[in-house]
Amino acid sequence: MLLRVCYFGTYRAKYSRNKILVEGLRRSGVEVIECHERLWRGIEDRVQAASGGWLRPTFIARVVRTYWRLLKRYRRIGAYDVMVLGYPGQIDVYLARILTWLRRKPLVLDVFMSLYLIASERGLAARHPVTGWLIYWLEKLACSLPDRLVLDTSEYVAWFQAVYAVPPGRFRLVPTGADDRVFKPVSNRCSNDGVLRVVYCGTFIPNHGVEHIVEAAKILAGEGTIHFELIGQGPEREKAMALARDYDLPNVTFVDWLEPEELLERVGCADVCLGAFGTTPQSLITIQSKVYEGLAMEKVVVTGDAAVVRAALRHGEHVYLVERANPGALAAGLLTLQADPALRRRLARRGRRRLSQEYTVERLGERMRFHLAELGS
Predict the structure, then answer these.
(1) What's the whole-number mean pLDDT along residues 365-376?
(2) What pLDDT does residue 334 have?
(3) Rg of the chain's alpha carbons, rounded to an integer?
(4) Roughly how many angstroms between the first and final C-alpha of the chain, as a whole number?
(5) What residues have CB less than 8 Å from 321, skipping those under 6 apart?
(6) Does the domain spanning 196-358 belong to CATH 3.10.20.30?
(7) How far is the C-alpha of 302 from the C-alpha of 293, rounded, in Å?
(8) I want to staple 177 with a disulfide (CB 3.0 to 4.6 A). Which of 25, 130, 269, 359 is the partner?
(9) What per-residue string of b and e applies to 294-327 under the rule 16 or more CB within 10 Å gives b?
(10) Residue ranges of the chain assigned to CATH 3.40.50.2000
């Protein structure tokens, strides 16, 4: 029987997690009807709301208008078997629970990441305690309402159990993976000048530990044959740039966000892609998208060691792991890779194969369909 899923809420429609699961479900034979309205205008908008902006009349009016439009869309979607809330859906749960109760349909929340943990790690909860308290209780109650919760790792499930007392049996796992429609092997058109090109691409936030990358670049500054390119934006970018300026590093280049095609071209020129090296809880209980995306592009991926990473990928076979928050270990790992082209080729090839076996759009869609079928049958 064809499973019909209502993908509902104010989720970030262009965010990789949501795009992967929607497309993956469709590839696995599920009919997905998206019932979506945009609430958030970007990262800064979400930060402002978490910093007390949610009390502003203009924001409250925007929320009311958004949910009114969402309700109008919902009235037109027809019958469905299961409702799924895309990420982030913790705020959408309250309306969605009422709608699914009225239709006597199961509700699934793709939690993916904790809003409270993110707010805490970025200092928002400490600077605005009332908002931090509100986010905590909003998320705690949100986790009690759906019939099923989805996360990417068992370590994240353990965190939700410890912080919110959510029984582990209520969760199902769907890894992060990569959108292999976008991230795929490309020919390296860069000059073969003997320089090891090391690329970091992402948001400059605490759990990525970009400062450790800069410190590693300082250690390797005298080599002259290893160059770092740090692509992206984020709250800790200025700190990383100031550090590089203080050290007067000639082997580090900072690049703003790029258009997708140009970004893929830059990563295609990389010899090594960097993951995350921070020691925050968020960094230790999930595997960042950039790790999977590097594997999908058949690149050598170097990332911080953690139990969550070792549960999915093997050091020396799929990825190269180094001690977190240890610039010396990262520098030593890069020197090892630079001196061993055969190891680089083997890691890139086997990493891509591992990604293809478990973490593609199609594979993740199959996992999600299986979990939804438990409820929709």
Answers:
(1) 92
(2) 98
(3) 21
(4) 9
(5) 302, 303, 304, 305, 309, 310, 315
(6) no
(7) 12
(8) 359
(9) bbbbbbbbbbbbbebbeebbeeeebbbbbbbebb
(10) 4-177+361-376, 196-358
Q: Are 349 and 319 in contact (CB under 8 A)?
A: no
Residues across the chain:
377
**Nearest in space to 268 (alpha carbons), one of 194, 206, 189:** 189
* Cβ-based neighbours of 361, under 8 Å, separated by 6 or more: 20, 23, 24, 27, 177, 179, 180, 181
Query: What does CATH list as the number for 4-177+361-376?
Result: 3.40.50.2000
Q: Of all helices (H) and strands (E), which one includes residue 157?
A: helix 154-164
Q: Token pair of 271, please?
A: 């010899």
pLDDT digits (tens, 9 = 90+) for 79-138: 999 999 999 999 999 999 999 999 999 999 999 999 999 989 888 878 888 888 999 999
The whole-model pTM stands at: 0.93
User: Which of 18-27, 58-67, 189-198 holds the top average pLDDT?
Assistant: 18-27
